[in-house]
């Protein structure tokens, strides 16, 4: 990584948000060509194969550490690699890329809720207010600005799936504090490898149920290359380095750029319409996260905040 990029936390974190936003848009674009589980399967196998030449020696040296922590590594792989991305791609068959990227911005708030449940870290009044404001924003998006729709409980299945996926990724982020002391690249390769193996039976079931891939085109091959490299490898490495430079608390708000980038990309490349309810919901979600992420100066805790894609 060039030194100018490696030491620029703001550029690294901005690129992370852009790559994760692109993941939702690309997934929506190829949803009719590649089944969702197969897309996740191909993505992670390709990412693992790309990483392997750079990490296999380190992974071999860390094999005793990997064996001792295989349960934690498997749990992290299941939540952060297997479940989150597969559900996200499944949801993109049923909702828009704009919705997917906007609702991902509630991730940092859900991480705080998992911290409360798992580690008894109480939410402050400011954090609670941020959570409530963000939830109102999510409700505005999934109801398309019609409160009566919430009363009729006519939520889109894709919207609900996105919320579940984000909650799972938030759990992964909260559990990152239990990760073993491995080199970042080998840790990423191991969790990706485990996640890809776990996906194999799910991919087989998907095809047994009748799912089929369309003939690969130049566009779909480009999409596969993008999801294998940018949101899968570079985004994780860039985000980790950004947190190392400025801390997780200051890095977290950059994830709120995901909905902004996602909305622009979806309008430009997919021709989706950006409605008033999207703008209203985005403003509430981002405002809620900014409120919740502000902490007193006396608090100096580095948590594993994350977003995903």
User: What form results from the Cα inertia axes?
Assistant: globular
Secondary-structure element order, N to C: HHHHHHHHHHHHHHH
Strand content: under 5%
Kindly name the structural category.
mainly alpha
Largest sheet, strands/sense/barrel? none
Helix percentage: over 70%
Q: What is the distance, rounded to the nearest whole angstrom, between the alpha carbons of the first and last residues?
A: 22 Å
Number of domains: 1
Q: Roughly how many Å is the radius of gyration?
A: 19 Å
Number of strands: 0
List low-pLDDT spans.
298-307
Q: How many helices does DSSP assign?
A: 15
Mean pLDDT score, rounded? 82
Q: What oligomeric arrangement do these chains adopt?
A: single chain
Describe the structure.
With 309 residues, the protein is an all-alpha fold. It is built from 15 helices and no strands. The protein has one domain (3-293). Helices cover 75% and strands 0% of the residues. Helix 2 (9-29) packs antiparallel against helix 12 (218-246) and helix 7 packs across helix 10. The longest helix is centred in the C-terminal third of the chain and has 29 residues, at 218-246. It starts with a helix and ends in a 16-residue tail after the last helix. Mean pLDDT is 82; it is low at 298-307.
Task: Describe the protein's topology.
Blueprint: H1 3-6, H2 9-29, H3 36-61, H4 63-68, H5 70-91, H6 97-104, H7 107-119, H8 125-142, H9 147-151, H10 157-175, H11 184-208, H12 218-246, H13 248-251, H14 257-270, H15 276-293
């Amino acid at each position: 990584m060039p030194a100018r990029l490696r030491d620029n936390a703001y550029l690294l974190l901005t690129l992370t948000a852009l790559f994760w936003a692109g993941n939702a848009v690309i997934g929506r674009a190829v949803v009719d060509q590649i089944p969702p589980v197969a897309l996740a399967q191909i993505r992670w196998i390709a990412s693992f194969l790309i990483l392997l030449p750079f990490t296999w020696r380190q992974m071999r040296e860390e094999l005793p550490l990997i064996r001792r922590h295989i349960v934690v590594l498997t749990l992290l792989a299941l939540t952060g690699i297997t479940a989150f991305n597969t559900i996200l791609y499944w949801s993109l068959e049923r909702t828009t890329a704009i919705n997917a990227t906007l609702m991902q911005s509630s991730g940092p708030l859900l991480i705080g809720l998992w911290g409360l449940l798992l580690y008894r870290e109480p939410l402050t009044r400011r954090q609670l207010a941020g959570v409530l404001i963000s939830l109102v924003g999510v409700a505005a998006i999934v109801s398309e600005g019609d409160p009566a729709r919430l009363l009729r409980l006519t939520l889109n299945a894709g919207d609900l799936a996105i919320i579940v996926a984000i909650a799972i990724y938030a759990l992964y982020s909260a559990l990152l504090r239990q990760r073993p002391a491995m080199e970042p690249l080998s840790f990423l390769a191991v969790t990706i490898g485990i996640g890809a193996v776990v996906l194999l039976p799910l991919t087989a079931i998907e095809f047994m149920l009748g799912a089929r891939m369309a003939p690969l085109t130049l566009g779909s091959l480009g999409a596969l290359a993008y999801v294998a490299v940018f949101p899968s490898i570079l985004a994780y490495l860039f985000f980790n380095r950004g947190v190392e430079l400025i801390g997780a608390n200051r890095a977290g708000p950059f994830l709120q750029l995901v909905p902004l980038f996602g909305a622009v990309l979806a309008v430009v490349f997919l021709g989706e319409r950006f409605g008033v309810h999207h703008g209203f919901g985005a403003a509430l979600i981002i405002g809620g996260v900014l409120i919740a992420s502000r902490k007193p100066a006396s608090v100096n805790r580095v948590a594993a905040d994350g977003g995903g894609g």
